[in-house]
Design a protein that fits this description.
Elements lengths: L18 H90 L4 E9 L2 E8 L2 H12 L9 E10 L2 E11 L6 H6 L1
Antiparallel strand pairs: 1-2, 2-4, 3-4
Length: 190
Amino acid sequence: MIRINLLLTDRRGQAGPDLRQLAAAVGSLAVILIVLLVVAVRMMSMVSDLRAEERHQQEILRKQKDQLAEIDRFKAEEAEYEQKIAVIDQLKDKQQGPVHVLDEVSRSLPDKLWLTRLEQKGDTITVEGNSLTIGDIVAFVDRLKHSEYFSQDVELRQSSQKMIADQGVYQFTVVGTVATGKSPEKKADS
């Protein structure tokens, strides 16, 4: 009968490493591999979660940038509208200015004085006319000086007497500056 020794032995007949030690070593290695696998899976899960959070935060950032761009666009439109409104208000003031000036000149006219020419260039106004008396010319200039639509520098530049239809008539030229930015509505607000 032949005997077969299934136990590990070296040639000298000594038994090899104990099976328990081998099993413990393999078991330890398996536990370490399982722990490493669990840690790796956990790390990959954390990396995946962090990447998802990063994508989410980038999406939020992109939306906020879009909102900021829209706010900037609205602010630019608002500034443009405010500028347009200011231009319209300025045009309204300038449109009403000549009407008020003509009205004030008309109210300042004495009975025996008539105008032959009225010209406004910028803020300077030139009035030419005729009068039967020099006193009416002086009264006209004084009324314009005290008007809210003219500054105090209204002056009589030229005056001469001529005969028209056998009547002595004084021809005159008055020059003054229109007061800018004044109207009854604005004075009432002040």
